[in-house]
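Example S7 (structure tokens).
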């Protein structure tokens, strides 16, 4: 702003700021004087501020004695200030946006909703209106579908690079889905794969259960199939979802299998105290389970491992063994998600730009979105006793080989895993086959595995007999349709 000649009064300065709006308590202020380590400002309400030291850290490099540049702070500049307990300080309007929602999974009542930095700035609610790719935070729904097809957390899939030619994709380009860290661990149980968010295994699992089946299964959580096409990439969260939809969907895991329809208004009362309209108890939760109670329980145990030993380990700071959730990061870090829950509270955090572009190196769901979730849950869960999950009827806990997922004796080395009683693992074979060789995917033409074999990770030709994935009857190859 061009300052008028002569002495500028506080009221005159505030008048110059009349077209600048206060966003979320970020107050516009006019710079009237710049000195080494001292900045004199007038806010849009006429308050005169003299800031120094840590209050001006954000702009100190643009003040004397720093060399003059086009970014140097000069009288007439308009900046933002924010008042905290220890006084005013210079701040910057964020370009990145976010959305956050929390609800009660037993009733559907929305407990918290933050649609973005400031509704005044863009008149847009990122929770209800924003539709973004959910990334890996969508994977639990595909794993849930797989449990109904006979798979278990102990089912073994190959974590290895996978590629599709343009002919196979039906487009003009090939597709090579990769793990985020570009690391591959070979055969891995599904429980480990979800905790470590392995993309290649999610793709192979999606193909095994059938993309069309998975798409239809998503209806149980309230998703519209049109938003999540029957493509393999949907297993990586390539569809579109809102924060509102994701919170409602995760509530189905939290409440042991019931679909939830969130609501904001509990009741409407007129000036005389008469209730005009009120929410009917149970109206916003389906009367019947939409997924098996056993399914919700097993997925919850898998998502607890995401916190205990996976991509959401930062949530261990809450010291709550009863929480579960999943991080999500889309290609090139355009979107960062964390969706998680306690049996009494579901919360989802998203962060990204309105005009999608990279959030910055390393800005994953675990780094950008999870801290928001942790801060909320720190307050919400305080005082609640640790929830003791009960194993549902029809779920058995058996000891399996940690490497093959096959059942072993109680005296043998292994780990304990949960299974549907009708989908139990096979006993450990005496002669265990060896491992699939990922290099076989690039074997000579007469040795090339079929499209389906490459997707699932098995290769029946070209290598020696000891180069196959261990057999697991709970992970039989199913039709892709």
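Recovered sequence:
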């Amino acid at each position: 702003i061009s300052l008028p000649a002569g002495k500028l009064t506080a009221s005159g300065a505030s008048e110059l700021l009349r077209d600048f709006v206060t966003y979320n308590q970020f107050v516009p202020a006019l710079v009237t004087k710049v000195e080494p380590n001292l900045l004199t400002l007038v806010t849009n309400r006429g308050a005169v501020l003299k800031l120094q030291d840590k209050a001006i850290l954000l702009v100190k490099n643009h003040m004397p004695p720093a060399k003059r540049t086009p970014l140097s702070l000069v009288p007439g500049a308009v900046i933002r200030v924010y008042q905290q307990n220890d006084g005013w300080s210079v701040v910057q309007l964020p370009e990145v946006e976010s959305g956050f929602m929390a609800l009660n999974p037993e009733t559907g009542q929305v407990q918290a909703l933050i649609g973005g930095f400031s509704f005044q700035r863009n008149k847009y609610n990122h929770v209800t209106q924003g539709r973004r790719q959910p990334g890996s935070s969508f994977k639990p729904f595909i794993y849930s579908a797989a449990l109904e097809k006979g798979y278990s957390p102990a089912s073994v899939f190959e974590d290895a690079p996978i590629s599709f030619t343009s002919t196979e994709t039906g487009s003009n380009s090939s597709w090579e889905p990769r793990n985020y860290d570009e690391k591959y661990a070979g055969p891995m149980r599904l429980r480990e794969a979800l905790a470590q968010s392995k993309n290649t295994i999610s793709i192979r699992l999606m193909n095994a259960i059938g993309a069309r089946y998975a798409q239809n299964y998503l209806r149980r959580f309230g998703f519209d199939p049109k938003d999540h096409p029957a493509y393999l990439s949907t297993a990586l969260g390539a569809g579109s979802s809102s924060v509102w939809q994701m919170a409602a969907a995760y509530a189905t895991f939290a409440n042991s299998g019931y679909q939830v329809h969130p609501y904001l208004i509990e009741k409407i009362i007129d000036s005389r105290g008469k209730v005009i309209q009120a929410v009917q108890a149970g109206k916003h939760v389906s009367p019947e389970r939409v997924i098996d109670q056993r399914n919700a329980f097993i997925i919850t145990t898998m998502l607890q491992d995401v916190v205990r030993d996976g991509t959401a380990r930062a949530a261990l700071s809450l010291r709550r063994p009863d929480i579960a959730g999943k991080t999500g990061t889309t290609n090139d870090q355009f979107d960062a998600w964390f969706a998680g829950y306690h049996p009494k509270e579901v919360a989802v955090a998203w962060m990204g730009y309105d005009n999608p572009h990279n959030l910055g190196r390393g800005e994953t769901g675990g780094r950008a979105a999870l801290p928001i979730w942790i801060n909320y849950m720190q307050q919400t869960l305080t005082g609640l006793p640790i929830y003791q999950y009960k194993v549902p009827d029809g779920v058995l806990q058996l000891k399996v080989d940690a490497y093959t997922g096959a059942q072993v004796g109680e005296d043998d080395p292994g780990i304990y895993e949960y299974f549907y009683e009708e989908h139990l693992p096979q006993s450990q074979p005496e002669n265990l086959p060896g491992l699939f060789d990922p290099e076989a995917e690039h074997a000579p033409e007469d040795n090339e595995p079929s499209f389906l074999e490459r997707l699932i990770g098995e290769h029946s030709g070209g290598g020696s007999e000891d180069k196959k994935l261990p057999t697991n009857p709970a992970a039989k190859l199913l039709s892709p349709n």
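Notes on this example. The chain has three domains: 10-91, 97-380, 395-475.
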